[in-house]
Design goal:
This protein is mainly β. The chain has one domain. It contains no helices and seven strands. The protein has a four-stranded antiparallel β-sheet, with no helix packed on it. A three-stranded antiparallel β-sheet has the order 1-2-3, with no helix packed on it. It is globular, with a radius of gyration of 15 Å. It starts with a strand and ends in a 15-residue tail after the last strand.
Amino acid sequence: MSVVLALSDGEIYLYDKEFKEAGVLNGNILAAKWSPNEEYYAVACDNGMLYLFTPQFDELYEVPIDDGDMTADGDTTID
């Protein structure tokens, strides 16, 4: 078992007796979480992208995050 250290500036490190760099993402990390079965590691960045990795940090997916109509600006009233 190893530990993941995800820094807000996009750097990701694995620790298994020593730290080693797993990768650097283009964007600041907003959230990161393992799936319940620890088969996938998901990372959301402020560049509007969602990344999905394997436990060995092979990238499976890189997709844009689309919040659709969930965003409201300051002039919008939500009923």
